[in-house]
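Bench notes, afternoon.
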Amino acid sequence: MSSSPVPVNRQIVLASRPTGRLTTSHFAIVDEAIPEPAPGQLLVRNILLSIDPANRAWMQAATYRDRLEAGQVIDAFTLGEVIGQRNTNVAIGAVVECAYTAAGKNMQLSTPKRCV
């Protein structure tokens, strides 16, 4: 009898600030437990992650947002499926768009205001 794998929240984090060309060494994969949504939050399983040129600027300096620091999850635009929620009017199974909310995570917590 085989056991099924324990689901994890896989995250893409900035491992080190790039000074030249980006390489895979600038990023790391971190696995954490899947969070439980708090009241008013959604748990979203990301389906699509869009990394934009702005991500490089965020790694270098503050822009219209704070600079991304080593160890932080990469922010990006995502499309995802709602797999959990607490006290929201968003249905389980709904596909939502989330913008720039630590979306480098396989699963993310968000509020309906951050996701459409």
